[in-house]
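Handout, section B. The chain below has 460 residues.
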Amino acid sequence: MNDSTAGRRGGAGRTLALDYGDRRIGIALSDELGLAARPLMTLARTTWPRDLERLAAIIREHDVRRIVVGLPLDMDDRPGGRGHSPADLAGRAAGGRCCGMTRLPTWLRDHWLLGTTGIVLLVLLLTVSAQIFLWAAIPYRGYGASFAIIEIPEGTGALRAIEVLEEHGIIQRSPLALTYLRMTGRTRGLKAGEYSFTRPMTPGEVFDKLISGDVYYHRVTIPEGVRSDEVFAQFVRSGFGTEEEYREAFRDTSLIADLDSEATDLEGYLFPDTYSLQKGTTPKAIIATMVARFREVFQPSWIEKMRQRGLTIREATTLASMVEWETAQAEENALVASVFYNRLRLGMRLQCDPTVIYALAMRNAFDGNIRKEDLKIDSRYNTYRYFGLPPGPIGNPGSSTLQAAVEPADTRYLYFVSMNTGRHFFSTTLSEHNRAVWQYQVRPFRQRKTSRSPAGGRGN
């Protein structure tokens, strides 16, 4: 080894190890720190110039800083029938005597020492490599909770990502982590995002998770029928954007221009569902996803049936939103829809309480109760005051009520009243309806009122 050259090129850098056999050349390469090695390739020996050219290309490609050569077993540096020794080949390739190479340090001074040094280095490399891969194969869990969620910010380098994992107890603190990533060639492959951990994992599994981008998804459930302002509030509570951002996206009617040219906002088209979202998903993207989901659910066959009934998508969605608020029983959806259809056909007011509630909510005047005087509010959404459907949806309906709006039951019902069991009693005449109101609403109310009074408590 040329000592002056070694002084200039010493320190960290890749080491190339050559096992120069009679027919093949085995090549191994260390990491940039020179601590861990991996097999690189095996070359079939050809001609001396060709072997020299290939070796020089490998040295250039991998930015090799030093070479270790394993000599023939008899240690006399014989040519082995090829006319040139392994020491000569490595020396020429590394010594700048071909292809414009800069001279590299090569351990060649003493044949026995070279062999001993090579063996020691090889043992060292194998030992360190074994330690690294053993560390990477042992599960670890240093966090006390049942699960942990960590965030790798955009632009985070490998070293900082390792620190975050160590700080949160995902991997055990060790100087081997960065070397492991370098050995496996993944220092630049870690993806930003939130990651969840629910069990002890090996460092290898942890890094696989970050390499694949297996990020954590927040699940946000939007109930069927809710108004858009309630949709916004649910996403804001879950950490996704601000109410102002949702209201801005809510006014982008270009998303439904082909469905509803009259729309001034997206009420009715934000499909209620459970959405899985990565941290950082914008309100604009969420709103667009909900509209896209509405398009998926609204079946082509429904459009044809809707047109047969003389309805637009806006009218069908409006009717569905009313049905959604009137009953929580899916089997009643088509019956409630039939009542509205029958009343529309006969020119009767729909008298739907939820439309009045929506009108009050638009004015921030709904306190959770609806009173007689509220039924007189001057709003196109007040179906006690105005005939026909309201101007637009009063919430965001689900698939079953959308289907009921285009496929109502074939009935003559004109009225329904709650039986206080979650279900409704349906009637075809006003007198029948009034009897049902007395039976299921008035009489139970009076009985409850009497039982709470002092006289009622004493009995007869």
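Note. The longest strand covers residues 37-44. Compare this with the example in section A.
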